[in-house]
Amino acid sequence: MAIKFTKPGRLLNRVRGMFVAVLLCGLGSFAGVAHAGYAAIVVDATTGEVLNEVNADEQNYPASLAKMMTLYLTFQGLQNGKLKMDDEFPVSAWAADRAPTKLGLRRGQTISVNDCVFGMITKSANDAATVMAEGLGGSESHFADLMNAQALRLGMTGTHFDNASGLPDPQNTTTARDMVKLAMALYHDFPQYVQFFATKEFMFRGQLVRGHNHLMDSYPGMDGLKTGFTDASGFNLASTAVRDGHRLFGVVMGGRTASARDHLMARLLDDGFDHRQTPAILVAQASSPSMAHRVLAALSPIGSAEAEAVPAPQHHRRRGSKSEPVAHNVCIPHKGVVCPRREVAHHSRRGATRLAQRNSSKKPVVAASSSDG
User: Fold this and answer.
1) 165 and 96 in contact (C-beta within 8 Å)?
2) Which is nearest to 225 in space by CA: 194, 203, 255?
3) Domain extents for the chain?
């Protein structure tokens, strides 16, 4: 009898395939693991009417959208007088060691509440989020308890926070519906602070820190809110925009790329303003197909992704320009946006924190560089 040998590479691939298949078949046994799928929702800010929703109650990972709750509790402290913008908080070793993206804070330094707020909104800085958590809660774990208590008060019954930044943790779970509730609460409860969400850049210790939310550059009337990315979550985005005095809020979760996510959000908002339904297939097309990859990332004991993606600068289409980056084969046309030929998204790699690399081997983006999430 002839014996057929299998090449080591093929054998390894087969073993991996068998492991993923077994893992997916047994997902029900992992109670703490979210579905890590795609979702979207658009809500009218005035009436509270849900204009469009797809998988809005599916459990997903918030990534840096979790920082919206950290900001909510920060604004709450400012509003009730417990905090001032010029208050200085110490930087602990725990905060300084947070994975990128970050402001690069060092243990023993101090940072103002003002810089923490702008750092979280623009750079999605995980070290700044942890400093605020420790300053308000004594420890990040206790601050997470405060986050969860506030989530229940806001009716976010499908959400659990385990840290202040949204860095990878199977216990960080939420839904698109809960995230849009949080976004609307920020604008309703703290109107005096919402202008911060429109910030695109700020100066931090002599360096210009540019923001991740590039859709604000190209979508008329958009003035916030927050981007987010981990390997497990995909590309997330909470947005709000005003047209003819009418405000909408939207959330997209599980985007395949930053470009696909942004184009989907633009289409959802356009359709919402025009009182049209966005076909669910467009939401699915903008999502990542690799559920197995996300589940493996979520279960990994190593923080395998940062709470915000850091691709190289992307040049978005403006009037008179000739091109605009977009995800290949997932471009979703909307008013004023032309789909280009190919995507140009680059991501970085740093230590044990693995970013989604696409078409690049560039060095990590520093605080003064433009990046996206």
Assistant:
1) no
2) 194
3) 34-299
Residue 262, pLDDT score:
96
The two beta strands, 88-90 and 110-112, are: antiparallel
- Give the global pTM: 0.73
| Residue showing tokens 């911060």 | 196
| Interval 54-107: pLDDT, tens | 999 999 999 999 999 999 999 999 999 999 999 999 999 999 999 999 999 999
For 206, how many CA atoms within 13 A lie in the half-sphere containing its CB?
Answer: 0
Report how far residue 278's alpha carbon sits from residue 78's, in angstroms, rounded to the nearest whole number: 39
For the cut 50, the answer to whether the pLDDT of residue 317 exceeds it is: no
Identify whether the C-beta of residue 89 lies closer than 8 Å to the C-beta of residue 131: yes
Which positions are annotated as active-site residues?
64, 67, 124
How far is the C-alpha of 264 from the C-alpha of 254, rounded, in Å? 11
| 99/183 Cα distance (integer angstroms) | 25
Distance CA 245, CA 44 (A): 12
**Which value, in Å, is the radius of gyration of the alpha carbons in the chain?**
20
- The answer to whether the Cα torsion of 192, 194, 198, 199 is positive or negative is positive
CB contact set of 68 (below 8 Å; sequence gap of 6+): 179, 182, 183, 186, 225, 226, 238
Long-range contacts of 341-347 (CB under 8 A, 24+ apart): 343/257, 343/259, 344/314, 345/257, 345/258, 345/259, 345/311, 345/312, 345/314, 345/372, 346/311, 346/312, 347/309, 347/310, 347/311
Quickly list H helices, 80-200: 93-96, 113-118, 126-137, 140-153, 176-189
Report the C-alpha dihedral over residues 252, 254, 257, 259, rounded to 10 degrees.
-10
Which stretches of the chain are DSSP H helices?
8-25, 67-79, 93-96, 113-118, 126-137, 140-153, 176-189, 215-218, 258-273, 280-285, 291-299
CATH superfamily of the 34-299 domain: DD-peptidase/beta-lactamase superfamily (3.40.710.10)
Measured CA angle at 100 (ends 259, 361), to 5 deg: 60
Residue 265 tokens, joined:
């959000």
pLDDT at 36: 54
Query: Could you give the CA distance from residue 253 to residue 371 in angstroms, rounded to a whole number?
Result: 19
